[in-house]
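2024-03-11 09:14:02 DEBUG pipeline.ingest accepted 1 chain
2024-03-11 09:14:02 DEBUG pipeline.ingest length=218
2024-03-11 09:14:03 DEBUG pipeline.predict start
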Amino acid sequence: MRWGSLVYRKSIVFMPLTTAQDRFKGTHYVNYLNIRAVDADSIEKAVEEVKTVLRKHHRNQDDFFDISYATAAVKDLDKISRIIKIMLSSIAGFSLFVGSVGIMNMMLVSVNQRTREIGIRRAIGAKRRDILLQFLIEAVVMCSVGGLLGIGLGIGIGYGCSHIAVEIVKVIPQWPVVISLQWMAVSVSISAGIGILFGLYPALSASQISPIEALRAK
């Protein structure tokens, strides 16, 4: 059973013994300390600081305590985390490229299918910039909605991967999922930027269509 907790940040801090421990267990010492380092590289430094503090309370002797730590396991977890990040980044980059090309193709098809609509709008007074903005806004909205759906899907996949990682690697009780609102905003902004970038050519093509030729189209 854990009776104390130790967290390593920049200095060592011991939590005091609780009154409940004294009354119900009748002991005045800590049976077990849980130590947590900031990262895998700080584990050995944390161990040395813990030893220094414990030696001061036990007449500079190491016989009264035993320290064990799993540096190899933590480093394996870091490697797994880096591999997952690389895989997800590669998948995201490839998906981004494929999705961008798909957006451009869809907008070009939309322009071809709506040629008469473009001709009618031009005939009743719409300017080229109005046609340009219409198709550009459609592309941005389409990409932004796709980005929001991707965020929702990513959150679900993140929790799923966390559960699977805990079941496979039983070193830690849980693998926390970090959700950043800042990166969500960045993702939606990137999606909107892709809509502008890859929707610009179809929008320009639509704005350059002659009203007469557009009205002749079937």
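2024-03-11 09:14:41 DEBUG pipeline.report Confidence is low (pLDDT under 50) at residues 1-15.
2024-03-11 09:14:41 DEBUG pipeline.predict end
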